[in-house]
Amino acid sequence: MHKKFFNFRLFKEGFKQLKLFGIISLILYLLSVVLLFINQIGGRNIVTIYNCNPLVLLSYTVIAPLFTLFLFNFLTSRNSSDFYHSVPYTRPCIFISFFTSIVAWIALIHFSSTILSVVMRLCMPDTFSIQWTSTIKTSFGIFICSIAVVCGVLFSQSITGTIFTNILVTGLILFLPRLFTTIFISMINNRTFGIISTNYFSTFLTGSKNMVVYPIMSLFLDSGFKTAFESYGEWFYTLILAIVYFALALTFFKKRQSEVAGNAAVSNTLQAIYRIAVTMFVCMIPITILCDKETAFSASDLPMYITMYVIAIATYFLYEIITTRTVKRLLKIAPGLIIVVVLNVVAVFGVSTISDYELSNIPKKEDIESVTVLSSEDSDLSYIDSLMSGLQIKDKKIISSTINHFEDYINSSKKVKHSYYTDDSNIYSVKFTAKNGATLYRNIPLSSSTVKKIYTYASEDSTFLKSLESLPDYSDVTVHISCNFPANYTVKENKDIYTSFYNEYKKLSTKQKLYLQLNDYVSLADISDDYNNMSAICYLNIYTQDSSLYIPVFDEFFPETAQKCIKLFMGSKKEIKDNKKNINSLENSTLLSDGDSFTISIWTNNNDGNDIYYSAERYDNSVSVSLSSNSVNTDSSVNANNYKFPSEFIKKITSLAPDSYEELSQSDETGLISITFDNSVSSYTLYMVPTDKVMECINNFTKSVSDNF
Amino acid sequence: MIKTENVVKTFDDFTALNGVTCQIPKGCIYGMVGSNGAGKSTFLRLLTGIYKPDSGSIMIDDLPIWENPAAKEKYSFVPDELYFLPGTNMNRMADFYSAIYDRFDLERFRYLTESFKLNPKKSVNTFSKGMKRQVAIILALSCHSEYMFFDETFDGLDPVMRNLVKGLICEDVIENKATAIITSHSLRELEDLCDQLSLLHKGGLVFESDIANLKTTLFKVQIAFTHEFSKESFNSIEMLHFTKNGSVANIIIKGDKPVTIAQLKSMNPVLLDVLPLTLEEVFTYEMAALGYSFEDVLEGGKDNA
Questions:
Q1: How far apart are CA A284 and CA A315, in angstroms?
Q2: Running along chain A, 709 residues long, what does each successive block of 10 average in pLDDT?
Q3: CB of B68 within 8 A of CB of B221?
Q4: Under CATH, which architecture does the B213-304 domain have?
């Protein structure tokens, strides 16, 4: 038995063979973890896997394929393949023992570096707050992903015989099915004017569950690396994928004949499949163009299509030449092009047929039980969207107008593509639920009047209102305190402010909660105009696992939280006084070296956006001054001897600044401005309310600078 | 004992082995000769379970070899194309072998390494072709296997090393009752080593026999008479070859030597010389009797000897 399925000595041998790569990788991982930790000391950090273990993504993108290709490289040359097939172990035993060696190394590198990074940060709880759930889940997610990649590479190695085809077919196995599906969905979507919501396709088709491919493909297709390692659904899908790859790899490895080592593929049939797959990849370009209605086939396009198909045919034969290093079989493989032609025809007609069917699939008003607005497809999912996705709207008028929008959109788009888009409408993902329980997901441009009806309906729905009652717990969210100036806060302060906010939110009236949650839709839902004159002290960006929430901290709604925020930014009474004293002392300071500068950064809180940046630099016995405030932008050089630090402004502004945060919070004004003084050696910040006197002082200063230079 | 029955192996359109049936008894040194492409290496790869036969059966001590660790445990194999771990030295290879083979003897490995005067800490990549082959032989011999397969093993070894290796193989066969199966394209290479010889040609086993028996049952006679004689004069004797130059005839005879000599003496020849045959001559005449031309079957055999 110990030589049939798994052998520990063989496992150890595999582990030993990977020792060099393993130790180098481990050192790099641990080094990067330690260096990043040292770099982060002094700041205040919320720790996730990405900012504590910077190389973590390499586990599945580099380590997993590299280790697998190396350890199973014996399959690519005759002598090594013969050797391993002659040893007194069954093929499954070699396969499983070596597979576990690779997984063991990946686990060792991956988890030891993550554990070290977390343990180091646990020693400094004031500086680092570890997002345990996210860190552990992401770490396991990436590990599962690595196993899937190992299995994918093994599958490829079992059905190919050279390093080149190992790598190429690995790419085909991992990416091509997903790429083809994405392109087909995109073609269907394009021909159906984007009506098909991503929710319509099963998650297997959208690919978002595939942790191996989705983040990498999103990097190229969605212009950003989207992480998907935290969800159990993704784990499960990727694990199933890994098991399928593993089973296929094991089956082919068992059946594999040693003599195929060095051949491009283990059989002529498989070689034909790879060749056709690569050719079809090239064919996707003309197919996509052909399927796009906007560029319908015309005689003038013929040279372009001919060129593309000539390239595809060349690819077909080139693949054979490159992988087999011979031209002998070119004539023999030529009939395979018939399959390529058939597949092209099937693809074009398939897309056309499916698209036509989808366009004709318009629900009948009398059949629909409810509609649900899932999200606006233009942006990431907001918290209110996620709450709205649970709301079944059974109002007949809303159902009717939604279907009308849908019909109008299709009819007008058939005449002129995208003609329906107006300033008055936004695309929403809508779920229709029929009386018989069937569902249909569609992207529909809804007019503002329909959206208004929907939110008004929501504001009267008891289930929806109940979901508004409370916010997620601190452990389930990441909170950023956002103000109009840079602000530092400890993790403890962050938690304290959210807790206070959370408690005050609970006490708010339903109307107030609706106003906060629907602030983007206030004008649509006619919820209230009572609060329109309020100004926020700061904002809380609250991120849940799949949505985000942006709520203003109004003094009227959250008095305790507002006080805490002001106190947080201003500090204690003694600190404020010391701060003012330090700022006053700056007027006598001088610039020590050529690279030094006096900088005054003023962050105001008005809507004009006139933040001011004033900088005076000494360089080659001269001082340059720049001032930016809306359209004012002065830049000139003066003699250093004539240059004076704006001491008058310092004196005046410090005299206007409050001596305690109580004084500040008692002001009628809301919102804060900050003024930072920096002489390249020290930096001090004043927090103030934007009273008329303060604003006058700032305006006079900017004017004087503009006039002087 | 190794038994093969009607073993067929094809590669695409090429039939490498076509119905090979043989029995290799335990405790012998079995030599297999054949020209390049005759199927010797394929046959060894089939015997060692590297290849799966398209049809037929291969058994070692009544155990099927294919995917059977119990059967594979019994042998060690030195192929024509050697395999070493990348960037390895002999010590690491010994470590590797001891992980794979239960019976690997580290003491014997050290002893043999010393005997061959090889540096076990030096990278195998820096070794010459012959030295690499010595490493492979040392590793195989250190496994204490019941069966040892050597494919063109003496290629690249100098005469001193050849004799050393032959000695070690014989030692293992005599002392440990091991069985060695050795292939070569040179008959002379195996002449002084093997108990049994077989000849493989175009995927078929055309000839298989015991060497001692071959040499005693086949002999050459020079004979002359005072009277005229022809081939028909010897009809009662099994002749493989007959030539006559003048009054002297050269006859290759197959049969019991004393009985045949007595029979010839009774014919009162004026000249009767019994001459020994080289193994190559034995093969030539045996093959001719089977309808093969030895030169065709074993092309280059003489050159490489």
A1: 13
A2: 80 94 95 87 68 84 95 94 93 96 96 90 77 82 94 96 94 91 86 75 68 78 65 88 96 92 92 95 90 69 90 95 89 93 94 89 89 70 78 90 89 71 73 89 84 82 83 83 66 86 88 73 47 67 80 82 78 73 76 70 59 66 58 50 66 81 59 75 76 80 70
A3: no
A4: 2-Layer Sandwich (3.30)
B81:A4 CB<8 A: no
The strand order across the sheet containing A439-447 reads A368-376, A425-434, A439-447
Higher pLDDT, A580 or B295: A580
Cβ atoms of B148 and B137 closer than 8 Å? no
- Distance between terminal CA atoms of chain A? 89
Contact A86 B77 (CB under 8 A): yes
Residues of B in contact with A17 (CB under 8 A): 85
Q: pLDDT: is A649 or B305 the higher one? A: A649
Structure tokens at B265: 């003496």
Q: CB of A13 within 8 Å of any CB in chain B?
A: yes
| pLDDT score for A640 | 45
Nearest CA in chain A to B53: A257
- Please give the residue of chain A at the shortest CA–CA distance from B74: A88
Q: In chain A, what residues touch B81 (CB-CB under 8 Å)?
A: 78-79, 82
Given a contact cutoff of 8 angstroms between Cβ atoms, the answer to whether A625 and A634 are in contact is: yes
- The pLDDT, as a whole number, for residue B199 is 85
B303 pLDDT band (50/70/90 cuts)?
very low
Contact A90/B at CB under 8 A: yes
Ordered by start, the domain boundaries in chain B are 2-211, 213-304
pLDDT given for residue A168 in this prediction: 94
Q: What is the DSSP letter of A381?
A: P
The answer to whether the CB atoms of A85 and B52 lie below 8 A apart is no
Looking at residue B47, the DSSP 8-state letter turns out to be: H
Task: Determine, for residues B69 and A89 on separate chains, whether the beta-carbon distance falls below 8 Å.
Answer: yes
Report yes or no: B48 at the A interface, CB cutoff 8 Å: yes
Q: Select from A9, A79, A86 the Cβ nearest to the Cβ of B99.
A: A9
**What tokens appear for A466 in the block?**
């109940």
CA dist A626 and A611 (Å) reads: 13
Q: Does B2-211 carry CATH code 3.90.1310.10?
A: no
Looking at chain A, the whole-number percentage of residues with pLDDT higher than 90 is: 31
Torsion sign across C-alpha atoms A552, A556, A558, A561: positive
Tell me if B75 sits within 8 A of B101, measured CB to CB: no
Choose, out of A16, A73, A82, A97, the residue to mutate when testing the contact with B (most B CBs < 10 Å).
A82
Chain B residue numbers touching A4 (CB-CB < 8 A): 69
Q: What residues does each domain of chain A span?
A: 8-186+222-266, 365-468, 474-565, 571-708
**Which of A83, A90, A258 is closest, CB to CB, to B67?**
A90
CA distance B50 to chain A (A): 5
Interchain CB distance below 8 Å, B48 and A93: no
Query: What interface predicted TM-score (ipTM) does this complex get?
Result: 0.86
Query: Inter-axis angle of helices A163-191 and A214-221, to 10 degrees?
Result: 60
The answer to whether the CB atoms of A86 and B72 lie below 8 A apart is yes
Q: Distance of CA A19 to CAs A69, A77, B255, Å?
A: 14, 22, 65
**Cβ neighbours of A9 in B, within 8 Å:** 99-100
Count of CA atoms in the C-beta half-sphere (13 A) of A691: 15
Report yes or no: B51 at the A interface, CB cutoff 8 Å: yes
Average pLDDT estimate for B102-109 = 92
Give residue B304's pLDDT band: very low, low, confident or very high (50, 70, 90). Answer: very low
Chains A, B: CB contacts under 8 A, how many? 57
For residue B85, the chain A residues in CB contact (below 8 A) are 17
3-state DSSP of B116-138: CCCCCCCEHHHCCHHHHHHHHHH
